[in-house]
Structure formats: C-alpha cells, structure tokens
Amino acid sequence: MDKQQKLDILKQLVNIKTVAANEAELTRYLSQLLNQYGIKNKIIPQFDNRSNLVAEIGHNHGHKLAFAGHADTVHEGDISAWDTDPFTATVKGNNLYGRGVTDMKAGLAAMTIAMIELHEEQVNLSGSLKLLVTISEELTQGGANYLSKLGYVNDLDAVILGEPTGFGVEQDNQHYLVNAHKGALIYTVESFGKAAHSSTPDKGINAIDQLIEYRNAERQLFTKFQTRDDELGTTIYTPDVFHGGQQVNSIPDYAYQQVMVRTIPQLPNQQIIDDLQSLVDAFNANDINKQLKLTVNFSGNPVKTSPKAAIIKISQNVLQAFTNDCCPIKALSIGTDASQFTQQNPNLDALVLGPGNNTAHQTNEYIDIASYLEFIDIYKKITIKYLI
What we know:
This protein is of the alpha+beta class. It has helices at about 5-15, 25-35, 100-120, 140-150, 205-225, 270-285, 310-325, 340-345, 370-385, and strands at about 40-45, 50-60, 65-70, 90, 95, 125-135, 160, 175-180, 185-190, 195, 230, 235, 235-245, 250, 255-265, 290-300, 305, 330, 350, 365-370. The strands form 6 sheets. The chain has a 6-stranded mixed β-sheet with strand order 1-2-6-3-7-19, sandwiched between helices. It has a 4-stranded antiparallel β-sheet with strand order 13-15-9-16. Strand 11 and strand 12 form a beta hairpin.
C-alpha cells in the first residue's frame, strides 16, 4: 500500500461523522477494506446504526495480541472556531485536520493498515493479531464492555490501544508509552422531598437541604480515603453538578448531584460504590420521608501494567529505534477502553501508544502526517517482535 492510499484511508475515516453515533458506517467501511485483502472480520451491531468490529490474522497457538481503537469522536464544538470543516479531512502543509483525527482515527487507521500489510506480506506470526473497533469510548466505553462480555478479550495476552500519546504539538514524533491510567466512576445521587408553598415551608421537605446535608457527609467520606498508588497518585473526587428547585415560590421536592471520581487500584470502584450506598442507606434509615437514591452511571476500573511486561519492553525498544530518542513510560489520568478489557481479563497487559498530540477534543485538531505513516511501521514491528 503506498503513501497516498494510506492517507486516503485516514481521510475516509475522518469524513465519516461519528460524534457519539453512526459508527456503523465506519465499521462497514473498514470491513469492506479488510475484505478486499482477504482478512476475516465480523461486524457486531450493538445499537441502531452503532456497530463494533472484530478482525483477526495469524494462528491459534502462541501469544495473542490485539490492536484496539474506538470509532466515535467528541462533538466538534463551535464550528465557526474551526479553520476547516471538521468533518472534511483537510491537508495543510505536513498536517491533516479534522475532528477525531488525533483522537483516535489516525491510530485506528494505522492499526488497520498494519494488519493488512502484515497479512499481505505473509509474515509467519507465531500467534494471532486481533483488531477490536469499538463504539462509544468517549462517553461510556460501551463497545469495549460489550465485546468483553462476548468473550473477545478472554484469550488475549496483550492489547495496544491507539490513543494519542505524543508529547505535544511541538514534538509530534516523540511519544510516551502509557502503561497505567486511573479508572473512572460517575454516579448520581437523587434527593426526594415534598413540595409546598414557600409561605409554608414547614409543610414541605426541602430536597436541596437534605442533599446538601448528604453532600457534606460524602465529602467527609472521601477525605478518609488516603491510599496512594506509586504511579497513579491518589483518588480524585470531583462533585461537578448540583441541581434543584423549579421556581422561587415553591419548596423543591427534587434535587440531584452528579460526581466523577478518578480511581486507583488500592481503592477499587466497587468499594467506593459500596461505601456510598451504605452512606445513602444510613440517611434513608433516619427518616422515611427523606429519601436519597444512588445510581452508578459509569464504572471503568483503573489500569496498570508492569513496565517489565513483554509488550511494554518490546514497544519501548521499537519506538526508540524509530525515533532515536528516549521514550519514557508514564501513567496518566486519562480513561480508555482498557478499563473494560482488563476487567474481563485481569491477566491482560495493556499499553496505550498511538500517533497524535494534545489537540484531541480541541478545535483545529490535527495529526502530523509523517508521524501517522511512521506508526504503521511501528505497529508492524511491535507485532512481529511480540508474535515471532
């Protein structure tokens, strides 16, 4: 496959608008591309017009490696702030612009092409290489969760997630190897009171007041969580949304808060959930007229792979050979589909490594074309060293 063909594939992915929807069009395109080269693949529908994809080459014996990437992107934001159409891939100088090109359609395209070229070159892999393409990573990691529950990660030894790991826009060809990241827990606490006229507040139960009382107790709970991970640091608690009341002359009968917690292995998501539920239960037991409800909206476990794992050491050596520079191993507070994969397969080694920079989720998101093309060869070399 020549340079222009590789660039055209990336352009096609960017031109398919997949803002938390429409991944089915993208997976159909990738399926047709893989079919052209005789690579077995399967589209796995999950919701209306939202499909995952799984492909595989190699043999059933030996190590099993996977490339993983998500098809969805975040919203384009204020389109007037873009210098180009975010959903029309545009080349300017050495860069390609468009929504999702860094996060993470360049990684997804590079992984797909690497698989195709390994197949075309008839590399005798002592093991198998899978490609996992997921929906809804940006919001729920729902595609990764679905594929995991269907058993597609059960036999894997290692997975590389093609999220952008570049140092920044000034150093497009220098990359971290991300071996660990925090988990995420998102939950809602609802408060149910009793409405009344504001002139007779004693006839009502103010849902805001009881939610504030609960929230103060919740803060105290999180101050007690003092455990720390050597790489990931401490648990981060951020109550970001608080809403209650409809108008100024009515006692509010409903209020809610939403919280995001960045989690570490030493304080598992489920332990936090259990502690929160106990706190809610204690409040509810005090007064049957004042009731709270806890709902977990999302839970993704922290991910941590030993820097000594084979996939980490091989990838670091390969990357250093390509860049002629130090490629440090680093833990971040980002979230990836690896949270779902490793929850299903606790023995799975996960590495985040992909083309791209820190323009992800920003206007005028771009990829350095040379870096994108180089990563195709990087992925091929890592696969060969890991599976031969």
